[in-house]
Write a structure and sequence with these properties.
The protein is an alpha/beta fold. It has helices spanning about 20-30, 45-55, 60-70, 90-100, 110-115, 120-125, 150-155, 175-195, 215-220, 260-265, 285-295, 300-310, 320-325, 325-330, 370-380, 380-390, and strands at about 15, 35-40, 75-80, 100-105, 130-135, 205-210, 240-245, 250-255, 315, 335-340, 340-345. The chain contains 16 helices and eleven strands. Helix content is about 40%, strand content about 15%. The strands form three sheets. A six-stranded parallel β-sheet has the order 3-2-1-4-5-6, sandwiched between helices. It has a three-stranded antiparallel β-sheet with strand order 7-8-9, covered by helices on one side. The longest helix is centred in the middle third of the chain and has 22 residues, at about 175-195. It has two domains: about 15-215 and about 370-390, Rossmann fold (3-Layer(aba) Sandwich); about 240-320, formyl-coa transferase, domain 3.
Length: about 400
């Protein structure tokens, strides 16, 4: 980054009440581009997560390392605060008055009961944008329905398209809906922030895991203008697939466009398949032939040949392969940083700005690390801070 170029979100202060992936991804992107993120971490939530993931059985150094290597925690300050404590307002009120954004992911109505809902918060600061991330939104029939990523995929019809078993859909092993929700949260916050900069008041940004999947539905419907039934997972294709090479390596090929299909057919020396791309009745025969051909050579050989023919192909990398991928490394999407006395891979955000790029230099801190610094910033006397610690309102550093 040029020394004279401030990060694009410099001056934005975000109070982060979130606990799960959508909120943590959302605020991590804001942090990477210069927003000040203050995590409000409830000691009860810390204990629940630690028990669920087995972190409570680790030594303090290992717990610290886990937070330090978490790409979603970098650049964030942390204060341990019981938001349901009667004295929490003494800390939260001045923070809310200074903040540009509040992000939360509690079930609808939960923070209202504690006195931290959007109406209460905007009475303290009418320019704050209040982002609520939930399973199904702040109203509607599913408002109070519990659920995670896979339930959202199921409700929106997307899960029905996952896998190639005609008798049963498959669960993806990646949190597609959660990540989509986090990204939509960033979009919503930036839109609301721009409205505020244009002289408007703050507003609630209502983003749900379920509704974040709507762009996928829009894409499907855009391809079915006549209203015909959207093709299911059992609809065969010959120009898209995963193939096993002679050394056991898997190759993914996506040659839907006729020109790429033609190049693929010539690369495997089956030009007779070129005009059979849409011959569904012949797919079984062609698939068997292609499987046999791909199985005659190692994966690396095929990748070189496909590159020579400008065919869409890639190895099916595992996680470690991806971390060492030369293109991702060259683009700075993955970089090594020394964190907690270890060299670890750090994942960059997927947006590259030429003049004000993302920052990757400040590792995540253990819960409560910035509690004292933030209380000093608010001007609380040390006697009062000791009293708040003694009565359980604020917690100590969770190492």
């Amino acid at each position: 980054m040029r020394p004279d170029a401030e990060p694009p979100l410099a001056g934005m202060m975000v109070l982060d009440f979130s606990r799960f992936l959508p909120g943590q991804l959302c605020t991590s992107i804001l942090a990477d581009f210069g927003a000040r993120i203050i995590r409000i971490e409830n000691p009860r939530d810390i204990a629940k997560v630690s028990a669920a993931l087995g972190w409570d059985r680790l030594d303090p150094d290992e717990r610290q390392r886990i937070r330090a290597v978490d790409s979603l925690s970098r650049h964030k300050q942390s204060i341990v605060l019981d938001i349901g404590h009667p004295d929490a307002a003494e800390i939260l009120h001045p923070l809310i008055r200074r903040a540009s954004v509040l992000v939360e992911d509690y079930r609808p109505g939960t923070l209202e009961k504690l006195g931290w809902g959007p109406d209460s918060v905007t009475r303290l600061n009418d320019h704050i944008n209040y982002c609520s991330l939930s399973f199904a939104g702040q109203d509607g029939p599913y408002r109070d329905k519990p659920g995670h990523d896979q339930i959202a995929l199921a409700l929106t019809g997307l899960l029905a398209r996952v896998g190639d078993d005609p008798d049963k859909p498959s669960l993806p092993n990646i949190p597609l809906a959660d990540i989509a929700c986090g990204l939509q949260g960033v979009i919503g916050i930036l839109l609301a922030h721009m409205a505020t900069l244009h002289g408007g008041r703050g507003q609630q940004v209502d983003v749900s895991i379920t509704e974040s999947l709507m762009p996928f539905l829009a894409w499907l419907l855009s391809r079915q203008a006549t209203g015909a039934r959207v093709a299911g997972r059992d609809t065969p294709r010959i120009d898209v697939g995963i193939w096993r090479a002679s050394d056991g390596a898997f190759l993914c090929l996506t040659n839907m466009e006729p020109r790429f299909w033609e190049r693929f057919c010539r690369a495997i020396e089956r030009p007779d398949f070129i005009h059979r791309q849409y011959d569904a009745e012949g797919y079984a025969e062609m698939r068997a032939a292609i499987e046999k051909i791909i199985g005659t050579r190692p994966g690396a050989d095929w990748l070189r040949k496909f590159q020579e023919h400008d065919v869409q192909a890639a190895p099916v990398n595992d996680f470690q392969d991806a971390l060492s991928d030369p293109h991702l490394r060259a683009r700075g999407m993955i970089a090594d940083r020394k964190v907690a006395n270890r060299l670890i891979p750090v994942i960059a955000p997927g947006v590259r700005l030429s003049r004000t790029p993302a920052r990757l230099d400040h590792p995540g801190e253990p819960p409560g690390t910035s509690t004292q610094a933030i209380l000093d910033e608010l001007g609380l006397a040390q006697e009062r801070v000791r009293a708040l610690r003694e009565n359980g309102c604020i917690g100590s550093i969770q190492r």
